[in-house]
Fold this protein.
Amino acid sequence: METGRSGRAPRPQTRARREEILKAAVATFGAKGYHKGSLTEIADQVGMTHAGILHHFGSKDALLMEVLEYRDRSDVADLPDHHIPGGAELFRHLVRTAFLNAQRAGIVQAFVVLSAESVTDDHPARAFFESRYATLRGEVARAFRVMCQEQGINEPDTIDKAAASILAVMDGLQVQWLLDPAAVDLAEASEFAIEAIVAQVLSPRELPLGRA
């Protein structure tokens, strides 16, 4: 449950105002990045003052973390217990997410920009993204292990590499799509890549390229 700075659940009016600010922050951080996207610009979009934004979130760093959590909550809003599923259903969820992302360029852009920025020194979102990727790699790896067990397959040594690769290809396709949406079908390309990686883990074939 979302809570305000006092730790109590905010009133409906306050909750709606906070979501309005978060949506404006998504647009601003997505277009300009965290450092160049100002609280004043966010405040102007929602008809507030800089002080008004701080009243709701306390600091720019705190607003950034709320933006990132808001984005992740939107991915699981319609799922039971608001948590990604396991086993084969996890991969179906990732495909559905790619199709959803194709309809929400603003959120995707904010994620791409902020995740790329997070590798820089002292970025306030670095720990968030480190934890996020570690958690997601673990979830995908567990889903592979469940599928192997269900299908009576000996667990291959490619699971961890496949988990990292699925996340990488989804993020990389988002960058290409944002740069040239007419040339890259985000949903279809993501589905193809996920299915190809899953198939290679569950039914490995000798790759044609090999190593040099």
About this structure: The first helix runs from residue 12 to 36. The two ends are 52 Å apart (CA to CA).
